[in-house]
Amino acid sequence: MEAADNNSHVFADYAALLRAFLPQVRGFYCYGKGGASLWSEVSNPTMPLTPAYEAALAALLNEPSANAARVELAGAVAYLVALRNEKDEAIAALAILMPADALPMTADGCAQLILPASRTLQRELSLRVRLLEGYRKLNVQATEERLLHDVERAVQGPPDSEAMLVRILALCSHYLQVRSAAVLIPDKSIALVHGAALTEPELTLLRKDRGESPAGESGDLYTVRIRGADRARIGLLVLAGWNGADFSAKRRSRVGRYIASHIESVLERCYDSLTGLMAWPVFEKLMATAVAASAGPAPALIYFDIDRLHVANDTLGREVGDQVLASFAAILGEEIARHATTRIASDRFAALLVDTDLKTAREVAERIAARFSRLEFGEGDRRYRASVSAGIGSAAPDHLLSADDDAPVDGGALATAQIACGAAKDRGRGRVEVYQPADLSIVQRFDDIQLVGAIRNAIDNGRLALVGQPIVRIKTGADGHDHSYCEVLVRMLGEDDQQISPSEFLSAAERYQMMEDLDRWVVANTLELLSGSLARLAPAKARFAINLSGQSLGSEAFLGFVQQQLERSRVPPEMLCFEITETVAVANLQRAQTFMHTLRKTGCRFSLDDFGTGLSSFAYLKLFPVDTLKIDGSFIRDLTTNVVSQSVVAAVSEVARVMQLETVAEFVQDEATLTLLGKLGVTWAQGYLFGEPTLLAERIASVTEMPGVAGLHRSADARGA
Ligand code: C2E
Ligand code: CA
Ligand code: CA
User: Fold this and answer.
1) Residue nearest to atom 23 of ligand 1 (CA)
2) Nearest CA among 518, 603, 617, 606 for reference residue 567
3) What is the pLDDT of residues 580-604, one digit of tens each?
4) Ligand 1 binding site (Cβ under 6 Å of any ligand atom)
5) Whose C-alpha lies nearest to ligand 1, atom 7?
């Protein structure tokens, strides 16, 4: 037992008073709650204590009925007297040490003897205890407030994930004086410890901690569960070696919960809730750091864009769409460390590879794309086949940026990866492209911004032209007539009136939401051209196909616009066929369906363009009331040599026959293909074999009563294959 002489001056007077009652006394000890020494005045402080002494002391402090005890020690006798407050609670115990040969007394006799002195001491102590308790409470309160305030400040500013969590843990260590403060989130591979490492027994306990109560305690191991966005437990805040005696259980759990909730909000801000990958702002910061620190090869950035996710969303529901994203994130997290991956937004992801050359990065991206493409969602004809396009950029600033004040902190990695991904999409999706500054289609994307101005100008000032490409009948229609049929295509006029093809400006127009304006221009101008020649066109049963973009089909006002144009031009609706792509159509399923149903009732026809390239193409036939399937050119170009293409065309043709739809084959460039198409039962053919697109006005002017199919394609365009 230690002498607590820091209180001596306070107790000196009481000691003198006690001595007046007990002249032979060898010493006094005063114990507070829990047996802690409050004060002692003793000639021989190293007095050995016996278990009986300890037991008697404990009884006096804890048992309301115990008042005094007498304990024999080696060469001494100890009289123990309880000191109580006004509420009769034991707040301290006084031990009086007498020589063994002193006049023997009973315990109660001793207590009685010193009563006047012990009463005063009692009052003094009770006051002091209250004072101390008040002081301690204030102190704890202040500690709690400072801790909470500092934690609050620590989580402000842009989230930087682990650094933020470490700051919170450091504050816990500092204010709560814990040996170790830790955050463990297994799913996010987070295991952060501030202070000493957790001991093996502690870790064993933690593994067993099921966190069923909001806060669990095991010895001095204090845990609070960390919850995810769905309130399910995802991990633990651990405070080890916390002598939380000053903190009431209530306060302790309040503080623990408060810190845990801040950790939760940091996690929420730092990680994407759906996929668990790094949130974009955190990733961006990491990327900037990595680029600034890289000494070896410039970090490579892979940009992923899930292909046609809206197909999954629209046909299978958002939940399945979320599943698709989560599945992709899981693959990404497995192939590349989780902390190096992010979901940028909706269906776009990125991964940073440090010390990796572009070739390796490409292999990684290809492996991910391949794994993902093996997944399938939904069933039957409502199915989404997973596919992702990826682009790889490098943070080498010389790629595209000169010494520029606006140079991005990532050295242009994101921009270049994004561009490469755009190229991957353009080239058929489900593939990986590495950014190459010399790549033409990529350079073209850089000019997007300038293009946008040109497109705007073209639409506003009529710097556009309409061309038409003939579509010819392969077999005679059921009604025995051949129609004049042609697809209207748009061209932009360059500075010296040269025609600029849609492939050069449509993607920019799409990205900058200009497609509806463009389509309106095409519809209005086509109808105007037609309205001037109705007398000649009607008997020829001429049919004109107009392409519509998804942006128009998804626009509320577009249907009204078309109806109004039809009325004004007096062009019979039967003369028009709208070509839509299935991707476009499903992007806004309901509106597309309304558009189609309404116009079909008036007599307009619809074709499903690029048929066969989309996912589960046949499934959409049930959703869209179309009259014609335009088999994508990629199946026609190699039809004579590729058996896969042949079976696709045969299947499409068969389905069309059963559903009483017509089929058009695009990109027919030679006779052999045409012959084969005839055998496969395809209805119409379009392609350079019959003619390239030429000015629509001239084409309309040349329409007369249609000649028989045999002679048509040669005579119309006089173009050898
Ligand atoms: P699409 O609807 O699939 O049109 C067919 C494209 O293939 C046209 O290119 C046509 O010129 C080309 N083509 C036709 N036969 C052959 C052939 O035998 N060989 C080759 N190599 N090409 C052939 P174009 O005119 O450049 O149009 C490209 C795409 O731009 C169109 O694909 C269509 O999606 C879009 N587009 C064109 N005009 C318009 C328009 O007025 N409005 C909208 N919304 N989109 C349009
Ligand atoms: Ca088309
Ligand atoms: Ca097409």
Assistant:
1) 667
2) 603
3) 986 665 567 788 889 999 999 999 9
4) 469, 489-490, 501-503, 506, 515, 519, 522, 547-549, 579, 609-610, 666-667, 669, 686-688, 693
5) 667
